[in-house]
């Protein structure tokens, strides 16, 4: 009779994908909860979010049809734009995740476009992986909620500012924010230091923020910032980081952002300060962005 | 035995055989995504139809049967080509040997109608007993034996044709 060994070997060598464990575990968990209707939302695609996203980057850049199918943030008269590129959801009892990945489009500077987009993808990939890891470690006995998303802070002729947020809920909610600000005309990514002639901006901005904090606390007894006697040693806000999170708002004002707990109690959430332009005007390289 | 205990057994069965069932699914659809989908759907179906399983002892066959059925359903839905009846395919395979040149054994296996291919995969790749295969495919033991014999004959016919082609080329 025929020798089927080579075929058997081929069969045995069918690679087992990494996602298999996730797919099986998710299907088991969902089924055991008898929540079979809910299962439809946990397509295995979640299990390989990372891989799917990577493929998707290619297709977003390549296919106008795909681009069209994505929900677009309404943008008027501008070329460079932001779209929601992929939205991944995991919903398993006490484990919930929703990762919304933004993508920059229609930039002529493809290197920058790709740099930003792959950064967004990778951030979400890491979030997803640590989410799955934590879920596995806790064997479904704990609670975890992770939400990532973005908000277009500014989109005008000159500036595109995007804020990306991550909220982790494990008992209390932890929140982090990141920003990217792009000069749409020159298609460059703006950093805080790049806006200024020298690092005098650090002190100028920091002093102004401290004044604003004091004024706010005086006006509103519920507000607390970690300055002066409110702060424990070492916790007090003294100065911004040279690359502190920032964006430029639609009025051409510089806005400095702090994560939750960075300068204030968690109850204050993440906070931001709009810096009056006259405070920094002498330190600016140009007035192209900040007015 | 209550439902809970049944579910526990099913979970161990699914977990223990996850790689086998993935390969089995893959052998039908030949791509990772679809094979994963099939495994997922099969697990779902297994839980829904757990009450149709009466003996825990036959759980493995029962679960494999769900995987095979799911894979075949999937292919049926997927196929854009009107499927030709198995018997017709078989006849074609036997009669038009000349069309099978350059087929290696693997391709020959792929060319087999599913009812023959399933038997080969389960018997020789998954090392299951004829009785188990009969259970999985919902046929009696004699039918499986016949199919196995026919499947092997069909593979040999195709391969023989292939080697004949070689001989012809050398001549």
UniProtKB/TrEMBL annotation, chain A:
<keyword id="KW-1133">Transmembrane helix</keyword>
<keyword id="KW-0812">Transmembrane</keyword>
<feature type="domain" description="DUF3298">
    <location>
        <begin position="195"/>
        <end position="276"/>
    </location>
</feature>
<protein>
    <recommendedName>
        <fullName>DUF3298 domain-containing protein</fullName>
    </recommendedName>
</protein>
<dbReference type="InterPro" id="IPR037126">
    <property type="entry name" value="PdaC/RsiV-like_sf"/>
</dbReference>
<dbReference type="InterPro" id="IPR021729">
    <property type="entry name" value="DUF3298"/>
</dbReference>
<keyword id="KW-0472">Membrane</keyword>
<feature type="transmembrane region" description="Helical">
    <location>
        <begin position="41"/>
        <end position="60"/>
    </location>
</feature>
<dbReference type="Pfam" id="PF11738">
    <property type="entry name" value="DUF3298"/>
</dbReference>
From TrEMBL, chain B:
<keyword id="KW-0805">Transcription regulation</keyword>
<dbReference type="InterPro" id="IPR013325">
    <property type="entry name" value="RNA_pol_sigma_r2"/>
</dbReference>
<dbReference type="InterPro" id="IPR014284">
    <property type="entry name" value="RNA_pol_sigma-70_dom"/>
</dbReference>
<dbReference type="GO" id="GO:0016987">
    <property type="term" value="F:sigma factor activity"/>
</dbReference>
<dbReference type="InterPro" id="IPR039425">
    <property type="entry name" value="RNA_pol_sigma-70-like"/>
</dbReference>
<dbReference type="InterPro" id="IPR007627">
    <property type="entry name" value="RNA_pol_sigma70_r2"/>
</dbReference>
<dbReference type="GO" id="GO:0006352">
    <property type="term" value="P:DNA-templated transcription initiation"/>
</dbReference>
<dbReference type="Pfam" id="PF08281">
    <property type="entry name" value="Sigma70_r4_2"/>
</dbReference>
<keyword id="KW-0804">Transcription</keyword>
<feature type="domain" description="RNA polymerase sigma factor 70 region 4 type 2">
    <location>
        <begin position="104"/>
        <end position="155"/>
    </location>
</feature>
<dbReference type="GO" id="GO:0003677">
    <property type="term" value="F:DNA binding"/>
</dbReference>
<comment type="similarity">
    <text>Belongs to the sigma-70 factor family. ECF subfamily.</text>
</comment>
<keyword id="KW-0731">Sigma factor</keyword>
<dbReference type="InterPro" id="IPR013249">
    <property type="entry name" value="RNA_pol_sigma70_r4_t2"/>
</dbReference>
<dbReference type="Pfam" id="PF04542">
    <property type="entry name" value="Sigma70_r2"/>
</dbReference>
<feature type="domain" description="RNA polymerase sigma-70 region 2">
    <location>
        <begin position="14"/>
        <end position="80"/>
    </location>
</feature>
<dbReference type="InterPro" id="IPR013324">
    <property type="entry name" value="RNA_pol_sigma_r3/r4-like"/>
</dbReference>
<dbReference type="InterPro" id="IPR036388">
    <property type="entry name" value="WH-like_DNA-bd_sf"/>
</dbReference>
<protein>
    <submittedName>
        <fullName>RNA polymerase, sigma subunit, SigV</fullName>
    </submittedName>
</protein>
């Amino acid at each position: 009779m025929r020798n089927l060994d080579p075929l058997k070997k081929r069969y045995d060598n069918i690679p087992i994908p990494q996602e298999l464990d996730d797919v099986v575990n998710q299907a088991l968990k969902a089924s055991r909860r008898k929540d079979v209707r809910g299962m439809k939302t946990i397509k295995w695609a979640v299990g390989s979010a990372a891989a799917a996203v990577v493929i998707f980057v290619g297709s977003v850049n390549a296919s106008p049809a795909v681009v069209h199918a994505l929900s677009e943030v309404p943008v008027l008269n501008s070329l460079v734009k932001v779209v929601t590129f992929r939205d991944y959801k995991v919903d398993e009892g006490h484990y919930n995740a929703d990762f919304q990945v933004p993508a920059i489009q229609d930039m002529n500077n493809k290197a920058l476009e790709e740099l930003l987009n792959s950064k967004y993808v990778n951030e979400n990939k890491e979030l997803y992986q640590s989410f799955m890891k934590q879920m596995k470690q806790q064997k479904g006995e704990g609670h975890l909620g992770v939400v990532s998303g973005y908000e277009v802070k500014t989109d005008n002729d000159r500036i595109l500012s995007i804020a990306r947020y991550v909220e982790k809920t494990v008992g209390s909610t932890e929140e982090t924010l990141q920003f990217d600000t792009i000069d749409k005309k020159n298609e460059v990514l703006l950093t805080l230091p790049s806006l200024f002639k020298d690092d005098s901006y650090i002190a100028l901005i920091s002093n102004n923020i401290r004044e604003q904090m004091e004024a706010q606390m005086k006006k509103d007894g519920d507000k607390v910032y970690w300055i002066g006697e409110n702060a424990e040693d070492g916790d007090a806000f003294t100065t911004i980081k040279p690359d502190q999170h920032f964006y430029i708002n639609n009025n051409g004002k510089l806005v400095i952002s702090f994560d939750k707990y960075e300068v204030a109690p968690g109850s204050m959430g993440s906070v931001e300060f709009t810096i009056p332009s006259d405070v920094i005007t002498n330190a600016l390289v140009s007035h192209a962005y900040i007015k | 035995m209550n439902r809970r205990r049944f579910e526990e057994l099913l979970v161990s069965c699914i977990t223990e055989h996850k790689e086998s069932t993935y390969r089995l699914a893959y052998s039908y659809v030949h791509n990772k995504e679809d094979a994963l989908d099939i495994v997922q759907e099969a697990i779902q179906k297994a839980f829904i139809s757990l009450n149709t399983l009466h003996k825990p002892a036959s759980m493995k066959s029962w679960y494999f049967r769900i995987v095979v059925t799911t894979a075949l359903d999937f292919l049926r839905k997927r196929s854009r080509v009107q499927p030709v009846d198995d018997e017709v395919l078989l006849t074609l395979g036997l009669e038009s040997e000349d069309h099978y040149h350059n087929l290696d054994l693997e391709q020959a296996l792929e060319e087999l109608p599913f009812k023959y291919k399933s038997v080969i995969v389960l018997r020789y790749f998954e090392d299951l007993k004829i009785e188990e295969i009969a259970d999985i495919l919902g046929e009696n033991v004699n039918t499986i034996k016949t199919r196995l014999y026919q499947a092997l004959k069909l593979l040999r016919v195709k391969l023989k044709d292939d080697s004949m082609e070689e001989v012809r080329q050398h001549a």
